[in-house]
Amino acid sequence: MRRNASEVMDLSSCTWMVRELGEAVSCTVLLDDDALLVGGWDGTIKHWSEAGDLIWEAKTPNRISSMVVQDGAIYATSGLHIVCLAASTGEIQWDIALEGSADAVMSTNKCVLAVSSVYDIEHNDFIESAIWSISFNGDVLATHRMDERPWTLHPYNDGAVAGLGRPLNGYLILDANGGILDQNKDWESPTICATNGEKPVFGLADGSIRSMDGALVGSMKSAISNVVQHEGGYLLADDEGNIEFVEDDTRWNANGNEVVALSLGFDISETGSCWVARWNGSQGEVIVHSINDGERIASLSGQRVHDMAFNGQRVAVGCENGQVFVWEKELFQRRLEQPPQQQNDASRSAMFEKLRSLRK
Predict the structure, then answer these.
(1) Nearest partner of 253 among 242, 265, 261, judged by Cα
(2) Residues in CB range of 33: below 8 A, 6 or more apart
(3) Comparing C-alpha atoms, which of 226, 222, 161, 215 is closest to residue 193?
(4) Smallest Cα–Cα separation from 26: which of 67, 58, 59, 54?
(5) Does residue 43 contact residue 83 with C-beta atoms inside 8 Å?
(6) Within its chain, how far is the Cα of 84 from the centroid?
(7) What φ, ψ does residue 322 adopt, rounded to 5°?
(8) CA atoms within 13 A on the CB side of 119
(9) Read out DSSP for 77-99?
(10) Where are the domains of the chain?
(11) pTM score, whole prediction
(12) Among 189, 171, 172, 176, which residue's Cα sits nearest to residue 135?
């Protein structure tokens, strides 16, 4: 049964848990076991269990913009640094300062790959960037310096693919050791974002979406800010607040304020969902859409969202005020099936429970 606009569910009525980082959230990661890793603008990292218990807290040099977990270790960007922490305790194992801000980190089965960039205020542009290959013990193995900023870094085959900004644009393909295998530099516009997977597509500053061979697979009005792959289609967002979903014969769009985070979500009533965070300059909003037709299923207004994570069963949203909201598939579905009045009662109960949990 379709829900009309007045029946859009309040997301606060079905929140699995709310936790406090203690500073503005900059990075959220949901692990396969539903545990939660959250990093902040001042360098704090907290690790909560699936049940919401705090496992450990760590302090790193600066803002956490990216984290990846592999073989019992957490690798995180922290301001100018790449930091390795023990996943079980949060104890820092090593810390390396890069040349410029550490923007992204990922790992292969051979090494850690990181991106750094130097921003020149006078030129209002990035003047130098690098891709670093670092051993799991913290030794720098290789550094590829370049004028182009790698705006995106994702796993690809056994290595990685990095989307490049001007002047060369295009992308780089790296092997498992971080060596450059191939480079595409024929595109006329900078690459801003890309999808994960065996056949990535790239979102460009001119509003186009291109496959690895440069073929045009879609376009929007302005620069592509997010691109997410969904089975045979794509979920897209541009800098003007437009969202578009295209898959075979299915196509829908939604317009609104600036899109600050975008993610696929768990199935709702046997239909996929997508989660969108918007910002109007003073207030944020999280909106849940049906992936089939764009129907609004649920929403929540409040703080500005800085990051969003999804692991198949849960969605986590990190906010500027330090709060982290987590939604779980089964609870969400149960709340959705309740009549609106019961949802409102559940919302009040859930809010009191959150306040109690935050006092722990």
Answers:
(1) 242
(2) 50
(3) 226
(4) 67
(5) no
(6) 20
(7) 95, -5
(8) 7
(9) EETTEEEEEETTT--EEEEEE-S
(10) 1-21+263-360
(11) 0.90
(12) 176
- Name the strand (E) or helix (H) holding 358: helix 340-358
Do residues 92 and 60 lie in contact, with contact meaning Cβ atoms separated by under 8 Å?
yes
Dihedral angle sign, alpha carbons of residues 217, 218, 219, 223: negative
Q: pLDDT tens for the chain, 360 residues: list them.
A: 334 445 789 999 899 999 999 999 999 999 999 999 999 999 999 999 999 999 999 999 999 999 999 999 999 999 999 999 999 999 999 999 998 899 999 999 999 999 998 855 555 555 689 999 999 999 999 999 988 889 999 999 999 999 998 888 999 999 999 999 998 887 999 999 999 888 899 999 999 999 999 999 889 999 999 999 988 789 999 999 999 998 887 789 999 999 999 999 999 999 999 999 999 999 999 999 999 999 999 999 998 999 999 999 999 999 999 999 999 999 999 999 887 655 555 555 555 455 445 534
Rounded Cα distance, 170 and 37, in Å: 32
Q: Which of 136, 51, 54, 139 is nearest to 89 (CA)?
A: 54
Structure token digits, residue 168: 């060369």
* Helix, strand, or coil (residue 328): strand
Give CA separation, 103 vs 46, 150, 233, in Å: 20, 9, 28
Strand order through the sheet with 9-10: 9-10, 296-302, 284-290, 271-279, 258-268
Reported for 234-243, long-range contacts at CB under 8 A and 24+ positions apart, including other chains, are 234/195, 234/201, 234/209, 235/262, 235/264, 235/274, 235/291, 236/203, 236/209, 237/262, 237/276, 238/207, 241/278, 243/276, 243/289
